[in-house]
Every structure is written in structure tokens, then in C-alpha cells.
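re the bet — no i am not wrong, look at it urself. input seq straight from the record:
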Amino acid sequence: QVRLVELGGGLVQAGGSLRLSCVASGPTFSTWTMGWFRQAPGKEREFVAAISWGSGSTYYVDSVKGRFTISRDNAKNTVYLQMNSLKPEDTAVYYCARRSGVSTGLPVAYDGWGQGTQVTVSS
């Protein structure tokens, strides 16, 4: 069973940085493609970034390209999301999940959702 715990959220001023961590349980983490999503109040859950299990290929939503970086450390069963140049519109609860389906960008293709971590960017 997949269990994921997100860490590292908080309050930051616009232009600041945060690093989120997602710690996974399970001996086969290195074979999982992992994704980060976010959900702002009143909005649908939105794909942010993903990293593949093999080549480590990365994928980003256009709105975070050049500002966010997803990475992983298989030895620590952890995936990271480094967020720089944060904007108020980045405010949301951030979730990590494991891709179990075909589509990289759709929440329905993921499982093992954690509780999420709140990121608040003040203007």
C-alpha cells in the first residue's frame, strides 16, 4: 500500500522560495512516477509537476516552468518540489501522488494521495 506524507509548506512573501518534500513508504519507490498537484479554494485540483521513475524525465504545467523544479532521491524515498519566485497565485494545498494510470497530468491517473501541505504566498 502506498503512503505519502507531504512536508515543507508555509507562509512566504511573493518572490520567496519554499521546498516541499514528499516521503513515501514502500520498497518499490524507485519504480514509481511521482507527481505534485495543488488545489486552491474553490478550484479543481491542478497538475503541477511530475518526474518519471526511469529516466527521471520531468514535466511541468506552463505556469510554473522556470520557477519550480521537481526532483527525487530514491535512497530516501523522497520527491521534492523546489519552488522559487513564488506568486500569490501559487497559494494552494499541495499534494503528491503516485502515477498509476496513463495520463501524467490528470489526478485520476494517480493514487496514494497524502494529506497535503498548505502553501500561502502573500503579496
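see?? The mean pLDDT is 95. told u. also Residues 47 and 107 are 7 Å apart (CA to CA). so pay up
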